[in-house]
Specification:
Layout (H helix, E strand, L loop, with lengths): L25 H11 L13 H4 L5 H7 L2 H14 L1 H13 L12 H8 L6 H13 E9 L10 E5 L2 H10 L18 E5 L8 E13 L5 E18 L7 E7 L5 H27 L4
Parallel strand pairs: 1-3
Antiparallel strand pairs: 1-6, 2-5, 3-4, 4-5, 5-6
Length: 287
């Protein structure tokens, strides 16, 4: 409780501690945690999640934060807030053959009930939806600053050695006709990092190759279609690739995308202000 002895001129800090919490029944604790906790991807920063961080308090909190009640509620909230999460859940259930394809009118409750028998907990289901349907693994990165508009195709000319290798790897399983401007036999995607500097975390774009014209010397003219925004989580350089970056990326939700871009702008301003400051120190004051 807050105590303020202003009459005596002594100001005591606010005491942010609920001393009776350990003595409450677990059901009441769950209600309290459910009121103030959130799951990963639910709030900004993007991968924060108090349901995860609260587990480190003690063993009792770990047990409470793994409760199916909290994770089922988190799934419900995410499916209502983010269309991509609902699409991932529907796709998962359809793949488990518990829902006939095309029954897009099924409610979230029906989808969760259909998915329930296949996972030991709703926390496991949440992790599967994120890791298998919303996260991109081992994906090549093409780094070139520029404006990219969702749904608007654009053309890129690959001439650097690392990007020649990238397009060769991506098109390896495509028919020869697809390498000469014909239709592709399957979806081929990679990440276009259209902002600099290339670092994590950084908003980027997952793009699909619509058309590819490969030249004898390895260069390629490629038409790309932006699919959705992602956040780069991990970056590494592929071995023997002339500095070709690979990444792990996570799809960005519509609700949190504006916040991500605001944070990106803040980071870029700090980065360039730092460069300017260093440059001024190197040059020194004008005589």
């Amino acid at each position: 409780m807050m105590q303020n002895n202003s009459s005596n001129g002594n100001h005591r800090p606010i005491e942010k501690y609920f001393k009776l919490f350990p003595y409450l029944h677990d059901d009441i604790k769950l209600h309290i945690i459910g009121f103030c906790a959130d799951a990963p991807m639910e709030t900004f920063p993007y991968l924060s999640g108090t349901l995860i961080s609260y587990r480190s308090v003690n063993l009792n909190f770990q047990k409470l934060c793994d409760s199916d009640v909290l994770w089922r509620d988190a799934l419900m909230r995410m499916c209502k807030k983010e269309p991509m999460f609902l699409h991932a859940l529907r796709q998962y259930v359809q793949e488990q053959e518990q829902l006939k394809a095309g029954r897009n009118s099924a409610s979230i409750e029906d989808l969760l009930q259909a998915a329930d028998p296949h996972q030991p907990s709703f926390k496991s289901l949440y992790e599967i939806l994120v890791n298998q349907y919303l996260r991109v693994h081992d994906c090549p990165v093409f780094g070139m600053p520029g404006i990219v508009t969702m749904g608007q195709p654009y053309t890129v000319h690959f001439f650097e050695r690392r990007y020649r290798l990238m397009i060769q790897l991506l098109m390896a399983n495509q028919p020869d006709s697809a390498k000469q401007g014909g239709p592709l036999s399957s979806n081929v995607t990679f990440v276009h990092a259209n902002r600099a500097p290339l670092q994590c975390p950084l908003p980027a774009v997952l793009v699909r190759i619509v058309q590819c014209q490969m030249h004898p010397d390895g260069r390629a003219d490629v038409v790309l279609l932006p699919l959705y925004h992602v956040t780069l989580e991990k970056l590494w350089i592929r071995e023997n690739s002339d500095h070709l970056y690979m990444c792990q990326a996570l799809r960005m939700g519509q609700r949190l995308l504006p916040l991500q871009l605001i944070e990106l702008r803040r980071q870029l301003l700090a980065h360039f202000e730092g460069l300017t400051h260093v440059k001024m120190i190197e040059v020194g004051p004008n005589p």
